[in-house]
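Hey there, shall we discuss this one?
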Amino acid sequence: MLKHYIKVALRLIRRSLLFSSINLMGFVLGLTAAFLIYLWVVDELTHDDCFRDGSLIYRVTELHREAGGEIKESPRLPRTLAMDFRQKFPQVEDATAIKYGDQYSYEAEGGKKMTVTEVYVDSTFFRFFTFPVVEGTPQRINENPNNVVISAELARKFFGSGSAVGQKLTYSFGNSISDVYTVVAVVDIPRKSHIRFELAMPMEAYGRGGVNINWNIFTESMHVYIKMKEGSAMLRSEAQSMSRLLADRGEKNVRLGFQPLHDIYLHTRFADPDVKQHGNLSTVYLFIALAVLVIFMGAFNFTTLSTARASLRYKEVGVRKVTGAKRRVLIGQFLSEGMVQACIALVLAMALTELTLPLFNRVMETDLRLEASWSVVFYMLFGIVGVGCLAGSYPAFYLSSVNPLLAFKGGRKTGRKGGLIRGLVCVQFVIALVLMLLTGIVFKQLHYMQNKDMGLDKENIVTIYTSLWYNVGEFKQELLRNPDIKGVSMSTDLGNFGEGTSFKDGSKVEWTDVDGRTDSLRMVQLWADGDFVKTFGMELVKGKLMDSDFGGYWDSSKEKTTVINETAWRAMKVADPIGMEIRSEWGIPLRIVGVVKDFNFQSMREQIKPAYIWYSPEAVQYLYIKIAPERRQQTLAFIKEKFEEFAKRDDAFIKEFSYQFFSDKLNQNYAREHQQSRMLLFFTVLAIVIAVMGVFGLVALSTEQRTKEIGIRKVNGAHSDRIVRMFCREYLVWVGIAFVVACPVGYWLMRNWLSEFAYQTPISWWLFLLAGLLTAAITLLTVVGQTWRKASQNPVESLRYE
């Protein structure tokens, strides 16, 4: 019997190939989109699953209560906490600490030099985190402070396909400081690990080569992790007892938090500048919602066309019932037809997913693979059964119950079927309209963010990392000899402005007002030289620019100066800040000499914060070079030539010349929005295509059902354009109803999405008008194209129909 059902279903598909193709393709496209998003969502939700016992690992964070009652959270803690957890809490199996370093220049024995990102790890790190070992023994890093573990990628860059274990890497800083390190192991850094490094060295290696260091500052800025014993879940009571560890050591207004390892990627809600790889949970939810909407559109399309097509099979049902077919046989036949078509759609969707996956990976900048799993098998079976039953339910349970005499007369022309079809079409239009509105607001916000006045000139500024500070001034003066270079400034990494070496919400700054009262405020600190304001075209509101006296910085008797922004001036609540002295957490007194107009290097999700700029030569390793746009390539060639010239003279100078335009660096703040805009555009186009395919199929079926009506109207004098308008009016009513429903839904979703930004583009009325007009125009083109042919044919042919 099953074989017979399948044969009949395949015969029906061949007999009406056009309608079957339209019916299947919408569902295939929806399923393909759902499969791609499913793979991406699973990938996002399984970050850091590459480590053994990951469910037992927690990152420790510090929660500090500010004077105003606000709680600030940070992942930077004292190194000694790791030992305290191991010794004082029996439920803790192990603990470790890692310190993220900077980029430094290393040279292999063959003379090859590269810039390398370092981390410092304690003795338990490679026992704690199970990175896949390519060669060597990572635990040997503890045998000697000059032993290092490198990543597989760095090993390939330095040593190609040869063995890296035993190779020597020389670190140099200036002309007098150097150290030689031995590679003891090579590990692979999984793509989904939040811990990223190229070279790991022991904590004891800090301060190598005789560099003057502050060990206390170093050890107070670690990431600490603990692993609970098997069966020792992190219960509330456990967390509370361990969270008081800092308080027990005498620190006030502070407690510890415990962040599960698997939550770091998607659920970090505080400044985490050391971990560059973070996802966004709202984006995951958005993509899940989009996938559900599109697959529902495909399923609705499939059901709508199947239901509409079934109305042409009344006579077939009548013949079967007259010849003795039982109702259960008819139900089985119609349901099996729906499942066969759903099965075909599923196979095609899997094939299309495999074909489009490389393109999807490039757009989303990921590395997904379609692999078999029980969850995939379950969703496939659920899809076949669910959609097949949905599509076959109307013909199975309604047509099988129709009286044979009524069936021979063509069945009922009106009733629940028409309302169901119209309702499903309206739902498709609502989804398409809402997606168009969301896509419009995302692109509008992106345009707003990229073109808003940020209080600085971001164009034609080249960023170069030099890796050193003490000799940058000479290089800067050499560049300024070129007339096409309009300004050069030394500064910290502005890509991490507001995070960097300070917390995202700033550090505590104190001052004494004219009445002798001491007040404080959290300000973001930015290290730069005196040419910073001029190079970035900032507006000086009051006072003058600060000095950048290299020699004076090391002389404690000389006064240090700073420039603050307008937000800091307002927050200080003083009439005139010029001449006032502020004291940072570093304990260095700074004299305010100027106020600049508010500027913004951060994403527009963030409000502009109080900030102060001061010169600290130890922190300015980046050069920002303002060039003339007319001779861009020639100027870049000149910069490269001078860079390579200085690199030969100074061993600490980064050897590989690389640059980035500052405007591109700022646009990286909006990588998530660009990703969302691309996906929304894709889903919007897909939704429109599916909706158009559904309208096309329904119009084709409708004109086929109403062929005689069209012929009679023409015989009675109706013109073709009048018949076309009749059909258009019907579908425009559906679009109008969908528009009325979609507008408030779209507005609410747009407002909700924009609420993430401190600075928002307005929701313009023309977005709604444009979405409605586009939907109406596409629908009209589809309806007119399909009905004109039928309305223009000879009425004799129409009346001869059937």
Notes: The chain has three domains: 2-43+281-448+673-800, 54-267, 467-653. The two ends are 32 Å apart (CA to CA). Residues 2-43+281-448+673-800 form one domain.
